[in-house]
Design brief:
Elements: H1 2-10, H2 14-31, H3 34-50, H4 57-69, H5 73-86, H6 91-104, H7 107-118, H8 126-138, H9 142-154, H10 160-165, H11 178-195
Helix pairs in contact: 1-2, 2-3, 2-4, 3-4, 4-5, 4-6, 5-6, 6-7, 7-8, 8-9, 9-11
């Protein structure tokens, strides 16, 4: 967050501010600071207004996730729907559809969506792959959830503090393979911290 704030000081143009504030909002989600993340989204809205633009589907999905984590499922569904209406063809709008089903408690539709997302080839990096762990965990398939959790960690998403407190994967904490995957995240997280101290 400090690095993004420094970047904003160096380039305060609205486009740069939107990009960096989006990363700050996501970081605040990972820290569990939902009020801060919502405030970041309000700042993004202000800069978008300056450019006479509306939020894209990715921004809307992340804002919806804040509300989902905070237990405001109605607001989450509204934002996930807005994401899909903004552009129904992207990976982010597909993620939004899956999170929408989760927010509504529609596990059958969530599981169907998770299976569709499992075969998409544009879920490339570890952070995106982590979404699959969310969807399968929330749909009640701990085996697939742990598989995708492990794959996301191996692909570079090893945010150990977030993974250990993420309520969206709480249902798989006792599943076979979960502890081993989280231990790999812990080791990589500590190594990363040691390199950047």
């Amino acid at each position: 967050i400090s690095a993004y704030r420094r970047a904003q000081a160096l380039d305060p143009s609205p486009a740069a501010m939107i990009s960096t504030e989006g990363q700050i909002a996501k970081s605040l989600i990972y820290l569990g600071e939902y009020d801060g993340a919502i405030a970041a989204h309000r700042r993004i809205d202000g800069w978008l207004d300056q450019l006479a633009q509306r939020p894209d589907e990715k921004i809307l999905v992340y804002e919806g996730m804040v509300h989902l984590y905070a237990g405001r499922n109605g607001d989450a569904v509204r934002l996930f729907d807005a994401s899909y209406q903004t552009d129904s063809t992207t990976l982010w709008s597909a993620f939004g559809r899956a999170y929408r089903h989760a927010a509504l408690g529609d596990t059958a539709q969530l599981l169907a969506m998770a299976r569709l997302l499992e075969v998409r080839d544009d879920v490339a990096d570890g952070e995106r792959r982590y979404r699959r762990a969310h969807f399968f965990a929330l749909a009640g398939d701990p085996v697939r959830a742990v598989h995708h959790l492990a794959g996301s960690i191996d692909a570079g998403f090893f945010n150990y503090p977030y993974v250990t407190r993420d309520t969206l994967i709480a249902s798989i904490r006792t599943a076979t393979g979960f502890a081993a995957a989280v231990e790999r995240a812990r080791v990589r997280h500590l190594a990363f911290e040691a390199q950047h101290d």
